[in-house]
Amino acid sequence: MGESKQPQKRFQSRINREDFFDITSLLSEEERMVQEAVARFVDERALPLIPDAFDKHYFPNELIKEIADLGILGCTLEGYGCAGMNSVSYGLICQELERGDSGLRSFASVQSSLCMYPIYTFGSDEQKERWLPSMAQGETIGCFGLTESHGGSDPAAMKTHAKKDGGDWILNGSKMWITNGSVADIAIVWAHTEDGIMGFIVEKDMKGFSAPEIKRKFSLRASVTSELYFDNVRVPEANRLPNVVGLKGPLSCLTQARYGITWGPIGAAIACFTEALDYSLERELFNRPVAATQTAQRRLADMSRRITTAQLLSLQLGRLKDAGKMQPAQVSMAKWNNCRMAIDIARDARDLLGGAGITVEHSPVRHMLNLESVITYEGTETVHELVVGRELTGLNAF
What SS3 class is residue 72? Predict the structure, then answer.
């Protein structure tokens, strides 16, 4: 009779499996403290709620105040009750929030980059004083109205329009796929006017404005997504963003949001990778752990390689942003790379978990479904490929 096979002794690595190149050592003390604080919030408060929220299709509103108390909302802005953090800290916040769920990061991203940023950058002093402090506290929630059902990647083709009427503007049209729409107190809405595209702060109780929630989604289920409708909505001139005209306004907001999105999927990928790694070490098939097979190790090693590459890409992007040197095409490359990295890892991690991988008790299928939206919104993968291609060749292929 043959001898029974003895269990293989596990090698003890000195490398952090979630930070293979010790990128944490490149962070400042403040950046590390920010990441650790948000990571604790995600582990202790968010993750216990997210599976049920995703399953039952709702955003856990009870977390909003805690998110605000962490100084996350509008965290890179100066004054108005905002934390004044650097861009790398904001990126790390996005990474940790999306390690919990894309819905958490989307909420913070929309509030900060798509709503508070345009008020701060293009708004009047009165608008800043009125809205930014309460938005930083999570007392006023915003949404961003740019995308339309027929337009998608071509925002210049928007049909929403505003016409001057005395001291007011009359707004008509609709927007689609709007995060936070039906829970928002204000909407930053972009519309054609006779003088070009302009931004307006539309308040939820303005007559003719409605924001029905989009139901029956299979992605971003722990997030509120809505349509916006404007039927002769009368908007005072005081609610128009006075300091920008043209697509520069909304596109600059999208650049801010896309920067955060380069970091967010790293968190989703880490969550999927660590769960697949732990599961493959625990689960035994044919008298040995799945992790002891060459196939599993090659797949896990590839996940680690791709996460590490994405971490370095976003960190350098953040350093460029803080130095005032970041270019939109660099954001496009990072968003394209990191979203593709994360969705591929989520799918492979789901497969490594076998049948267990399709349940809400495990995170890969939830992240996989969420990332179908993340890889699409704020510019599809194809759009970002073409942005990089245009930068390289000087020729526009759109």
Answer: coil
- Residue 237 bears catalytic tag: no
Tens-digit pLDDT profile for residues 303-361: 999 999 999 999 999 999 999 999 999 999 999 999 999 999 999 999 999 988 898 88
Residue ranges of the chain assigned to CATH 1.10.540.10: 23-136
Residue in the structure block whose two tokens are 């060459």: 294
Q: Could you tell me which residues come within 8 angstroms of residue 107 by beta carbon, excluding any fewer than 6 positions away? A: 59, 64, 67, 179, 180, 223
DSSP state of 283: -
Dist. CA 265–CA 102, nearest whole Å: 8
Q: Which two tokens stand for residue 126?
A: 């009165």
- Continuous segment of H or E residues that includes residue 257: helix 248-282
List pLDDT tens digits, range 138-164.
Answer: 999 999 999 998 877 777 788 999 999
Please list the residue range(s) of the chain that carry CATH number 2.40.110.10.
Answer: 142-239
User: The pTM is what?
Assistant: 0.94
Whole-angstrom distance, CA of residue 80 vs CA of residue 268: 31
156: Cα separation from own chain's centroid: 23
Fold of 23-136: Butyryl-Coa Dehydrogenase, subunit A; domain 1 (1.10.540)
For 84-129, write each residue's pLDDT tens digit.
Answer: 999 999 999 999 999 999 999 999 999 999 999 999 999 999 999 9
Q: What dotted CATH number matches 142-239?
A: 2.40.110.10
Is a pLDDT exceeding 90 seen at residue 11?
A: no
CATH number for the domain whose boundaries are 248-393: 1.20.140.10
- Kindly report each contact of residues 34-41 with a partner whose C-beta sits within 8 Å and lies 24 or more positions away, as own/partner: 34/85, 34/89, 34/92, 34/93, 35/89, 35/92, 35/93, 35/95, 35/96, 37/70, 38/70, 38/72, 38/92, 38/93, 38/96, 38/97, 39/96, 39/99, 41/66, 41/67, 41/70, 41/96
> Which residues belong to CATH 1.20.140.10 in the chain?
248-393
- Catalytic hit among 78, 378, 381, 385: 378
> What does DSSP say about strands 209-210 and 288-289: parallel, antiparallel, or unpaired?
unpaired
Which letter does DSSP use for residue 240 in this model?
A: B
Q: How far apart are CA 183 and CA 223, in angstroms?
A: 11
Is residue 46 within 8 A of residue 37, CB to CB? The reply is no
* Alpha carbon distance 383, 309 (integer Å): 21
Q: What is the CA radius of gyration of the chain?
A: 22
